[in-house]
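Entry 14. Two folds queued back to back today. First construct below, sequence then structure tokens.
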Amino acid sequence: MIFWLAAAAFASSASVRVADPLLPSIAGEFGESIGGASHIVTAYAIAYGLFQLVYGPLGDRMGKTFVVTIITLGASLATFACIFATSLGALTGLRFLAGVFAGGLIPLSLAYIGDTVPLAARQTMLARFVVANTLGLVLGQAAGGFLAEYLSWRAVFGGLAIFFLIAAVGLRRELGPLRDLRPVGTPPPLLESYQKAFGLFRLPMVRAVLSSIFLEGVLLFGALTFVGSHLHARFGLGLDRVGLVLALFGIGGVFYSLAAPLFIRTMGERGLASAGGVLLGVGFLGAAVSGPSPFLVIAPAMGLGWMMLHNTLQTKATQMAPEARGSAMALFSSSFYIGQTTGVALAGLSFDAWGAVPGFVTAAIGLPLLGVLFAVFLGKIAKT
């Protein structure tokens, strides 16, 4: 089951970042600026973040695996429809629809792991599961740039739709008849599930984790989304090479995922959070002042730093509300992607006016501060 959940998470992660290297191509075809074309990223992230608030309580009520199976198929159909978009507005709307479906895949899968894996082994298991997410970032960006350069951006969405469909079929076959997917017993009324979900904001741990992941989304992806466009516009890199450079970010994340037990054992949660933020800050500072060649070192280091910080936040999120884990993880992921939406929207305006460097500098300052402050918070709750 976890294999097919990971396959769905792979497609979901690829879909989140696959459009980044496509922005110059899409902007050129529809006669828009790159900042204007970035609306397809913003629209997807808005839907992806907001509708997680819907799927979390639904998963707690109807069964997490049941909901994941249905929305994976929906994501496949909506992504396939992107192939036929005839305007930027139509493509933006279809990307929004794809985000509506894909938004619930990762948080419900993480909640399933939280339900079934003991806490002592959970951070390692989450890190391994995130290998699929990170590979989605790697191959999504690399394949997106390559296919856009030599075929068309439409081919990118076609390939992604096929992968969503494969994951949906695998889940359906693994899980058996739909009637067997529902949880045993009488589920609570749906309204009660949503009231319980939003009531989690009363908990200090929930507020701290959600505000931290929101800021991570704003700072990191507001800058990262425009790395490819920066390299293309300023240094003339082809979209295929842009995709490969962006893929190096994911490779750093894969390295962390594979070596997670060692990192967790030697650094602990506080060390991972603070060191991860510092690595990201140094990486974005290097991106602001260097050319494309140093990205061979900068990008993997940034991916490693992100996973150090993000995996720590993710693990604390699974402990926020064990009795409503689907809802808690939905709030976590929603805060993350709403943060991405905010960051990309602001950085898009900044990119059209001043280029990518102001966003890089903002991330270089903000992410180390975030990592250190969250490490301090972890130290405080450890003493209580």
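Second construct, same run, same settings:
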Amino acid sequence: MIKQINHDEGFLKRKAVKATRQDAEVVADLMDTLRANQERCVGMAANMIGVNKRIIAVQMGILSVPMINPEITKKSDPYTAKEGCLSLVGQRSAKRYGTIEVTFLDQKFQKHTQTFSDFIAQTIQHEIDHCNGIII
């Protein structure tokens, strides 16, 4: 189900709790909401739809990829980026890394560790920041 975008900075600054198998509906809602906003958004965290769980979804080309309980395990090549956010007004600076390694669970709760770089890495970092209560 497509959900409304949350703009409450107080809620967005709360650190998300780990997701469980019982959060499958949240994953589906997040994916639906990301697809509904794909012309203006490439990533989304569950707190952006009002759910305080460690779930993100990232647009990777034509695929929307959900990541449950994502954690960055390695990072390299720091830089500063200007970013916008569907939950906030305007653009702001953020420290990012050109290459990251992320451990996460897929929708079937299978564990993955994968390396990402460039814009997809930046998007994942932005959404994981949301999970950690960090907003740009």
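Quick look at the second one. The first helix runs from residue 9 to 12. The longest strand covers residues 63-84.
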